[in-house]
Specification:
Rossmann fold, alpha/beta, five-stranded parallel beta sheet, binds pyridoxal-5'-phosphate, single chain
């Protein structure tokens, strides 16, 4: 299996070579030259597997340059009960009205980013050690991704993490989650500013090629292919748990932001998994819902991006969307390149001519949700089933209900636990959500954080002093 760029300007490379890279050299995203197919018989033979071994089967189709016994060790180290609090790793629970909930939030940071990040941590360390090198991850976070990366990379010998966060602007729970890590390779830097300023510092440092090369700076952003591949696994797992035999169709509803999670569903479906519909749910930031409704992709400027009560879906542009468009236009890199050039010059592109294929060929449908919808859904789901869902998952449940079909299980992806977004739970139900017992004392633990001004040079000096060499 080799990987090429969606824009056609990269020589084909194996998995381990694209693993540590961000964008392809031509500005595109890495994508498999052709997708592996999983025949119905193979799929049935996976039915009894535990999650780590299913992950091995699926990931071995993508990481063909990692020896089988090594990959099996990596998936078992990533997906076990020391790391995830459910015996099944990803439990499937029934809701009402033909819906069920796929629990992707049983990992250390209580959100679905752990699913991919735990594998990424294992495979990063493996590839770096084999190459005898190290990596310094530099990123900015307003919560979810940064903490998932820190938990996945804590204690790793060949990697250090420098995570910038906006000082005083995350919830007490989020701060405690990140800042209570005491591992020497994890560096929390709280900058006196907002998230965008922290992000700008990261861009400044990554744009300094001399510094970037000397200190081997890396990133773990949402376009990383290994993350997409690791997420494909839970679509197979969800399908196997929701069905009893071959060929049965299942639909998946996915709370979406950067289009990473649902892209993995599209990949699974393209590999032959019997997926009927991929139901894309957005909040008020409905760039993607608008695309699937109209065929026009129109990213928004920052001032038109709303701060909502499902904050991890507050995006203005969807960084993984290009990979889906590549398939939509018949895997034609010249066409993708032209579309993104148009996006750069005009701010939008129009694929409405292909609109009839969105659902008929690719299974995509979409819907949007509002703050009022979230509150009502959290309330009604709790009243009718006793299950408490987080605000992001509530967006998924709300939109999923519009697309339920007789005889087709509708699996909603649970992207976070309610305790992470307790303010909104309190607004909906009049009482907060309780964190899992193991985290009851989280906010009382000692914290380790370096507070700095918004100054790229100060951050640079800190990295120089603490980087892995
Ligand atoms: C990241 C995230 C999302 C959005 O996922 P994408 O892969 O960016 O579409 C939704 N919900 C939660 C809780 C998240 O952390």
């Amino acid at each position: 299996m080799k990987y090429i760029s969606t824009r056609g300007g990269m020589a084909a490379q194996p998995f381990s070579d694209i693993l540590l890279e961000g964008l392809a050299p031509d500005g595109g995203l890495a994508i498999p030259e052709s997708l592996p197919q999983v025949p119905a018989g193979t799929l049935e033979s996976w039915r009894g597997l535990r999650y780590a071994d299913l992950a091995y089967e699926v990931l071995s189709l993508f990481a063909t340059d990692i020896p089988a016994q090594d990959l099996r060790r990596l998936t078992r180290a990533a997906y076990n009960q020391q790391v995830f609090s459910s015996e099944d790793i990803v439990p499937l629970r029934p809701l009402d009205g033909g819906l069920s909930l796929l629990g992707l939030s049983e990992g250390p940071t209580l959100a679905f980013k752990d699913m991919a990040m735990q594998f990424l941590g294992q495979v990063f360390e493996y590839v770096l050690e084999r190459r005898g090198t190290t990596l310094n991850i530099v990123g900015a976070t307003s919560g979810d991704t940064g903490s998932a990366a820190e938990y996945a990379l804590r204690g790793k010998k060949s990697v250090a993490v420098f995570m910038l966060s906006p000082h005083g602007r995350m919830s007490a729970f989020q701060r405690a989650q990140m800042y209570s890590l005491q591992d020497e390779n994890i560096h929390n830097i709280a900058v006196r500013g907002v998230f965008d300023q922290a992000q700008d510092i990261v861009k400044t440092l990554a744009g300094d090629l001399e510094f970037k090369t000397r200190y081997r700076l890396g990133a773990v952003n949402s376009i990383n292919w290994a993350r997409i591949a690791a997420q494909v696994v839970y679509y197979f797992h969800g399908w196997l748990r929701a069905t009893a035999g071959p060929g049965q169709q299942v639909s998946f509803a996915v709370p979406s932001g950067n289009f990473g999670n649902i892209l993995s569903g599209h990949i699974a479906r393209s590999m032959g998994l019997p997926v009927r519909r991929l139901v894309l749910a957005t909040n008020e930031n409905n760039v993607l819902e608008e695309f699937f409704r109209t065929g026009v992709y129109r990213p928004r400027p920052a001032e038109q991006t709303y701060a909502t009560s499902s904050p991890s879906m507050d995006i203005s542009r969807a960084s993984n969307f290009e990979r889906f468009v590549f398939d939509l236009v018949g895997r034609d890199p010249g066409r993708v390149k032209a579309l993104w050039a148009e996006l750069g010059s005009r701010g939008s592109f129009d694929l409405s001519a292909l609109k009839p294929e969105f659902e008929s060929r690719f299974g995509f449908v979409a819907g949007a949700s509002t703050h009022a919808d979230r509150l009502a859904t959290i309330r009604s789901t709790y009243d009718e089933t006793g299950v408490l869902v987080d605000p992001h998952t509530a967006d998924g449940v709300k939109v999923a209900r519009q697309y339920v079909e007789e005889g087709v299980p509708m699996v909603v992806l649970e992207t976070a636990l309610p305790a992470k977004f307790s303010d909104t739970i309190e607004e909906a139900l009049g009482r907060p959500a309780t964190p899992p017992a193991a985290l009851a004392d989280l906010e009382l633990r000692p914290q380790r954080v370096e507070v700095m001004d918004c100054d790229a040079d100060a951050v640079r000096r800190y990295i120089e002093a603490h980087a892995k060499v």
